[in-house]
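Protein folds are increasingly written down as discrete tokens. With that in mind, we are printing a sequence and the tokens encoding its fold.
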Amino acid sequence: MAIIVFGGNGFVGSNLVDALIKLEKEVIVCDIVKCDNSKKLDNVTYVTLDMTKKSDFEKLVLKSDDIVVNLAANQYHNKVPRKGRKEYFFDTNTAGTRNILEYMENCDCKNFCMFTTDMTYGRPQYLPVDTNHPQKPFGFYGQSKKAAEDICKEYRKKEFNITIFRPRMIIGPGRLGILKKLFWLIKHNLPVPTIGSGKNCYQMISVFDCVSAIMCAIDKGLPNSEYNLGSKNAPSTKDLLMNLAKSVGSKTIVFPTCGPLVKFVLKIMSIVGLEIMYKEQYMIADEDYILDISKTEEELDWEPQYSDKDMIVEAFNNYNK
């Protein structure tokens, strides 16, 4: 049995591959990004593959007992084009997922794990947000992932075992995303504005906790279900930022703003091509947004090991290096 990781050279994928290598698992890394030859190991096969091109799948040989993990996606930490944004997300995240599942079906391989996003929920209608919460994404990224989930549900009817994970913002060494702008202000002892009062809770998830969740799902035989991934006891945005400044010796002060006004300005800046945050990010930036992870804990015997405060301090220290 091999574990095939689409997006295996990416952020979560590379950490998953490292964990699988330590367990001496047979791994096949499928990625549009070519791998550095120096990383090649005996029990790892690297396949350069574009999941949006069906012809590329001829490079991949699947056995019926193999497990496929799809972590490949176009996300906001990539350079997002201003034109053709819907196609940018849907071609990879939705059509690419269908291509994988079609090829798996042709190979009689029916074990699949998929990462989508908490953005499929849209604005929280109640807290904490459980996996039964209505899915009303208001941006192309969330919509493309919701459409990918719908395809997965089609294939469950074909006796596929498909586990779907919906993580909050994933953080860890090597990825900063929107935090890069924040960290620059803190490093230079400049004031940091919150969007709104800053009293709302902000939840993240460590890349290492994401990897452990995948391993737990594999151990459980890939249950046909959806699972949230997030930290426990998320602090308020203001507390999170003040703790970070104190921990790294910054003189930064954190101050509140008028949330609706800031979001209006961000919208205008996006329209004129000066995008600081994307709609799916700033629209909920002043709202409490906590995922209910109890189902993940109970059904997969999984528990997050990293707190939001520890994660953001570690991320800052990596940025500072």
The two ends are 40 Å apart (CA to CA).
